[in-house]
Amino acid sequence: MRTRAIALEDRGLLIANFYGSTQEGDLTAPPNCDGFGRVRHFRRATNPNWPPDPLPIEPACRALGLEARDSIRAQVFQIAACNWRCWYCFVDYRLLSADQRYAAFLTPKELIDLYLKESDRPLVIDLSGGHPDLVPEWVPWMMQGLRARGLDRETYLWSDDNLSTGFFWKHLNSEDMDLICDYSHYGRVCCFKGFDGLSFSFNTRAAPNRFDRQFELMERLLRLGLDLYCYATFTTPIANKTGEPMARFVDRLQQLDPNLPLRTVPLEIGIYGPVKDRLHSVPSVALDNQYRAVEAWLRELETRYSGQELNKPITEVPLRHQRHPKAEKSEPRGQNHVLGTL
Ligand code: SF4
């Protein structure tokens, strides 16, 4: 999948094109950047029975020196490859298959050119997918491109990681890694696909032992000192007995870092266009079960942290190895920023 998603000599990355996709039907605005981009509105508010989601709103606002807010726009690009097939993925599977009929090779320079051609540019650039770590070069190449245009402090770079590959260490050189570690306007969100081996394999169709691999990779990323956050999805086929596995899940997060659960956001699974055709093979209780699981998650956090700790902004939760606990704040900006308003 990696070899089909990257052209190393030309710095080409296989980027999904949304035109004609089922995902396009879920977009609130037409695709931009000639079909290779979309603008996503990240919102803090969720359903009333679900914890709010501050990602990437708070990390981006802190880095860019923006006032606190409840939503933020992001320019999203998707690598057209993923090694997993989560049943709830809101991306068409054909946009995950490294299929050049639905994607094209673009360099980071070309992506930034497309971004700069847009009239109302978001300040957040989200490298999504698919699974961006299949092509870990994407992050440092984008950083180099943004820096070359003088945009590295004007934008905030955000990338996803499904914690499956470890290509970060296999394919990046020390120069790339140093750039990523030193780039102040960057955050990475790592997604745990379940809270135990059963829910993990149910969600991803991958082997249950790959659940353990997620923790190993997360530990290695934490040691780098990046500004890291986590998502966790809680859909599961079995409703009862969520309490004990959830307690073990929180134990394991805390073994990686005592505060990691406070940087972990439960992600509510909803049904988008591409998911509808897959629902026939999913037990209908799986979606309902995530609400029982999130109650168990919240109970665990309440027993382990004080109210003050639980109410801390997610960006202020310290991690043992973090390099930029208060990363080089920019001066607060008004609404008339050079790249447009959010
Ligand atoms: S890991 Fe992410 S991109 Fe890949 S199938 Fe799962 S939800 Fe979709």
CATH class: Alpha Beta
**Elements, N to C (H/E):** HEEEHEEHEHEHHEHHEHEHHH
Helix content: 25-40%
Strand content: 15-25%
Number of helical segments with 4 or more residues: 12
Spatial strand order of the main sheet: 3-4-6-7-8-9-10
The CATH homologous superfamily name equals Aldolase class I
Q: Which spans of ≥5 residues are poorly predicted at pLDDT below 50? A: 325-342
Biggest β-sheet strands, sense, barrel:
7 strands, mixed
**In the CATH classification, which architecture applies?**
Alpha-Beta Barrel
**Bound ligands, named by name, code or SMILES:** iron/sulfur cluster
DSSP strand count: 10
CATH topology: TIM Barrel
Mean pLDDT: 92
Which structural class should the secondary elements be placed in? alpha/beta
Shape descriptor reads: globular
Provide a descriptive summary of the structure in words.
There is one protein chain. The protein has 342 residues and is α/β, with parallel strands linked by helices. The protein has a single domain (2-316), classed as Aldolase class I (TIM Barrel). Helix content is 33%, strand content 15%. It has helices at 2-5, 57-64, 108-117, 138-148, 167-171, 174-182, 197-204, 210-224, 243-256, 273-276, 285-304, 307-310; strands at 6-7, 12-16, 37-43, 71-78, 103-106, 124-128, 156-161, 186-192, 228-232, 264-266. The strands form two sheets. Strands 3-4-6-7-8-9-10 form a seven-stranded mixed beta sheet. A three-stranded antiparallel beta sheet has the order 1-2-5. Helix 4 (138-148) crosses helix 6 and helix 9 packs across helix 11 (285-304). The relative contact order is 0.15. The structure holds iron/sulfur cluster. Iron/sulfur cluster is lined by residues 82, 84-86, 89, 91, 96, 129-131, 162.
